Amino acid sequence: MPEKKICTTVFPLNNGKASTKSHIEVRDSIVHALRSGYRLIDTAQSYKSEEAVGEAVRLSGIPRSEITVITKFWSHWHHDPAQAMQISLDALGLDYIDIFLMHWPCAFSPDGKEFLSPSANPTYVETWKLMESCVGPRCKAIGVSNFTQKTLDILLPAASIIPVVNQVELHALNPGSRLVPYCHQKGIQIISWSTMGGGPDFASNGQAIITNPLFQRIAADNNCSTGVLALSWAVQRGISVIPKSSSLTRIEDNIKLVTLTEAEMKEIDQAQTTIGKLRLSDSIRSLAGERDGQPTIMNWTKQDFGWEDAEGNWLT
């Protein structure tokens, strides 16, 4: 389990291609993050940046034992996570992965050309059972990403190993007020992605937090940026955060968390009501589709994920 509450995630390389320039930028930003005090690096096969991560870990001068490396396998490997793990190890050039995650509960066909239905084989439970055999000297722990109470309620009774983390979209407009205590009760650490409210990867307003007067006012009262405010709010709730930035200055700034008052925490907690709800996952362009007239992400509806009930009430 991550010991540090503040971590860094590796941004996907431009167009998913590891150009020489982007590789160097990613590598150097990770080296800078590690030398600035970060000790958890989050990446994924789909980011096309594992090679840069491994190189940065080796160049940083920080002992490998002090660094937690998380990576995630993509959905066309649900049938063979052991092979996916070997691919990640080869790309990273490291002797072991600290935490290996199932990126989504959704499976693709092995050729990556077809989104499978939620009931198709392999189910995420079957994939998890295969992941359990990966735990050992080359894979210290396993976890999940983008899981909800619904999917975990199905997974956990069949699991011999409890996921060490669940990495999910979580920010003030999608705070996981039910999901966070659920996971903590089960002994699963929440790691939040898009804690600052998103960015250009999403079709919806990804700047709703950074530019909102509410967050700007509370940030000014604490002499910090709105980004640091968003991170501090999450960490104060017992959540690990993985801010994503290629700016060396912002990397240094993001680790300087502040302590918020109870009143400030409550005001941010209520932002989903006073400002409105925002689920960035709804607008991931590359994964969007439709099934039986309903919008989907990777052929799963909001009800399949457990994000909403049939009446549209948010469940997480």
Automatic annotation (TrEMBL):
EC number(s) recorded for this UniProt protein: 1.1.1.307
Catalytic activity, reaction form: xylitol + NAD(+) = D-xylose + NADH + H(+); xylitol + NADP(+) = D-xylose + NADPH + H(+)
Residue stretches making up the NADP-dependent oxidoreductase domain: 21-271
Annotated keywords: NADP, Oxidoreductase
One GO MF term: oxidoreductase activity, acting on the CH-OH group of donors, NAD or NADP as acceptor
Pfam families: Aldo_ket_red
Segments forming a coiled coil: none
Classification via InterPro entries: AKR, Aldo/ket_reductase_CS, NAD(P)_OxRdtase_dom_sf, NADP_OxRdtase_dom
Superkingdom of the organism of origin: Eukaryota
Family under the similarity heading: Belongs to the aldo/keto reductase family.
Cited function: Catalyzes the initial reaction in the xylose utilization pathway by reducing D-xylose into xylitol. Xylose is a major component of hemicelluloses such as xylan. Most fungi utilize D-xylose via three enzymatic reactions, xylose reductase (XR), xylitol dehydrogenase (XDH), and xylulokinase, to form xylulose 5-phosphate, which enters pentose phosphate pathway.
The protein's name: D-xylose reductase [NAD(P)H]
